[in-house]
Specification:
4 strands, 58 residues, mainly beta, four-stranded antiparallel sheet
């Protein structure tokens, strides 16, 4: 599978790729002026497919 950020966002280079039980990615606004606008996600897979959930930005 692949992921694409929403318009106005890009993926940070800190993507933690699998294989693994959990992978992480962070989307940042293209005009990254405020770190508070970053969106971090943890992605897991189960029998129904991938699931993304918001994750704390650490």
């Amino acid at each position: 599978m692949s992921w694409s950020p929403a318009d106005g966002y890009h993926f940070d280079e800190d993507v933690v790729r699998g294989p693994g039980r959990v992978v992480r990615l962070e989307a940042e606004p293209s005009d990254d002026t405020a770190a508070d606008d970053d969106l971090s996600y943890a992605i897991t897979c189960d029998a129904t497919g991938p699931r993304a959930r918001p994750a704390p930005d650490d």
